[in-house]
Amino acid sequence: MASMSETNGREIGNNTPLAGKVALITGGTRGIGRAIAIQLASIGSAVAICGRNEAKLAATEREILALGVPGIALRADVTAQNDVTKLVEKVESTLGPISILVNNAGMGLFGPVHEKTEVEWDQLMNTNVKSVFLVSRAVIPGMIERGAGDIITISSLAGKSVFAGGGVYCASKWAVQGLSGCMAEELREYGIRVSTVCPGSVATEFAGRGPKDSTKVLKPEDVAHVVAMITKQGPQSFVSEVHVRPSRRA
After folding, report:
1. pLDDT in tens, 109-140
2. Is 190 tagged catalytic?
3. Please, which pLDDT band fits residue 97 given cuts at 50, 70 and 90?
4. CATH entry 3.40.50.720 includes domain 4-8+16-244
5. Catalytic residue among 169, 174, 176, 202
């Protein structure tokens, strides 16, 4: 694993605007999370990812390190407080203070509300909402102390609309929108920028509502590009919310 000191010794060009930053991406082993990790690493950030699949963690870590930046991949359950505490401590002791948090871990669950179980409700709400609360809460004190930071949560256009069969999923994303909006108001005076990215359909392994025409959906890299744009925003402003739609209507 490369160290921060090793990276500081190499020449930093204009194509690495995030040099010196440390980013943590939850759910960073596949799909949108993996694309974000690679994108931020490619523009100079040290990158930590977490997930549950050991093989995918190792594979993505190798891709990050191949870009010449420090990286670490850790197994963690971001719905569990103890795991989150250990995760943040390990990232910061290895790479340095977390300056960018991308809350990407999430899951889909669709179908009529009356057909869903309490177990399904709890699993989805814990993954999509509780994880955002726990990981954000863990990094905020350090960001306040340093007077800077970016917290970016991957939400969904389902957090802005409703549709039949989307009751539980939409509820989770509406909750994410509310949580992120309130954090933005609470933290802006400390120099911390809180944003949500709301994609439409994305071509990933994510369990969506049915088959997707690959020519009419977003790619994970489209979302990663938006996240990178947010992290490069000038210090006097922040992007609170971005809607990302495919150019062709499905």
Report:
1. 999 999 999 999 999 999 999 999 999 999 99
2. no
3. very high
4. yes
5. 169
